[in-house]
């Protein structure tokens, strides 16, 4: 079981990650989002920032579909994310170890090549 604090700790342990000021959490590397709070849109009302659900960058449609089909208890999507390499992750259903893997993978896909080597030399926190 994970939560927003786990996301924050894991994301900030990665090199060159910054947290953007938001109602929930929003982490980026080189100005590219890798994981953030799910802004749930509800008809007729303002959006609700869900810190129990993370939007996670996954790289491509094949990876997205593999996660959605392979682990539906963890991952889901909405029509707003159709065609985008993003999935929603139920934080209360994912272990911290699996969350670390997912956030690190998102970082690797979003970080420019010039920064990727920094992951291997970053101190473990």
From TrEMBL:
Pfam families: YjbR. It comes from the Bacteria. This is MmcQ/YjbR family DNA-binding protein. The lineage of its organism: Bacteria, Bacillati, Actinomycetota, Actinomycetes, Micromonosporales.
């Amino acid at each position: 079981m994970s939560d927003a604090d786990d996301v924050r700790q894991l994301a900030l342990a990665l090199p060159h990650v910054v947290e953007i000021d938001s109602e929930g959490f929003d982490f980026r590397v080189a100005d590219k989002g890798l994981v953030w709070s799910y802004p749930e849109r509800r008809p007729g009302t303002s959006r609700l920032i869900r810190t129990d659900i993370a939007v996670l960058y996954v790289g491509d449609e094949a990876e997205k579909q593999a996660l959605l089909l392979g682990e539906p208890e963890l991952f889901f999507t909405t029509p707003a994310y159709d065609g985008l390499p993003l999935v929603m992750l139920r934080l209360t259903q994912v272990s911290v170890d699996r969350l670390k893997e997912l956030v690190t993978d998102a970082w690797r896909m979003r970080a420019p090549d010039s920064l990727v080597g920094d992951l291997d030399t970053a101190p473990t926190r």
